[in-house]
Amino acid sequence: METTLTLADKSGVADARRRAVQMAQSLGLPEKSQADAALIVTEAATNILKYAGHGEIVLKSADGGAGGLDVVALDRGPGIANLGAACSDGFSTGGSLGAGLGTIARHSVLFDIYSVTGNGTALFARVADKPAAKLSRFQVGARSTPKLGQDVNGDAWAVRHLADSMWVTLLDGLGHGPLAAEASRRAVDVFMAADPVALPADVMRDVHSGIKATRGAVMAIAKFEPVSAVLSFAGIGNIVSVVHTGESAQHLLSMDGTVGYNVRAVRPGEARWVPGSVFIATTDGLSTRWNLNRHPGLTHRHPSLIASVLHRDFARDADDATVVVVKAV
């Protein structure tokens, strides 16, 4: 469940507030959470118009099965020079009371913000009936949009939580529209039903056999095992997957081919997976030249912010575009 609202004038603030309440209701959140959602979206939308002139609000069910409503506010404005001060009540550069960001933080169970001077601001807030679980070893975030003019997204992603590990997959069905979406959906079904003790390469072979009646897809599968500090991986096709740990970045190798049509070999891969590690996977709806050079410190932010900023800055309207991010906590 996801919707993107474009903000260009004050009329968009009321619409965004109304849509936020509607989505909170549809997610079964209580009245207090609905009110929190309305307040957060109103403050975020007002800030976008005041400081950037235009931008967008993304409303969606919380990523990774966390429960609740995620709000992401994005703009390409001048950025915030002093984030610490801006998040304090009473600070303002626009002549207001300066309560906006502090208010948003207090009415969220999770809050994060990222801004680079001259390169826009991205804000993330989660509204839920109860605080986020403190014991989870993973944070998950994603941003996925269909090709401009399409109602159906041919990309798909999924998360599977197990007792001591977590699985993530990202798919790009060949082409666009309903047939691409059907290939991705069937692949997700096979992925979710796979043997939990299998390796990603084994699951990839199962998916290849299971979606041969479709037009096929490119696919990446990652298995995160915190106890052994290992990320296992298998990829087929042009999905870009990178693991950032500290100052190092490791690109994970995908083999040529199309799952469900032509897979000559599945080569397993591994990477170190420790607290602070960040896994980023993108479909080719993002420029293949995406990188973090213009985004200092972004990997320290919540995965929903990482995904949203990369999507904002590198997604192409001519294709379905998806970013999935997992962080080890």
Automatic annotation (TrEMBL):
Q: Which InterPro entries does the record cross-reference, listed alphabetically?
A: HATPase_C_sf, HATPase_dom, PPM-type-like_dom_sf, PPM-type_phosphatase-like_dom, Ptase_RsbX
Q: Which domain of life is it from?
A: Bacteria
One Pfam entry name: SpoIIE
Which stretches make up the PPM-type phosphatase domain?
135-328
- Give the matching PANTHER family: PHOSPHOSERINE PHOSPHATASE RSBX
Protein name as catalogued: Anti-sigma regulatory factor (Ser/Thr protein kinase)
The organism encoding this protein is Paraburkholderia caledonica
Lineage of the source organism? Answer: Bacteria, Pseudomonadati, Pseudomonadota, Betaproteobacteria, Burkholderiales
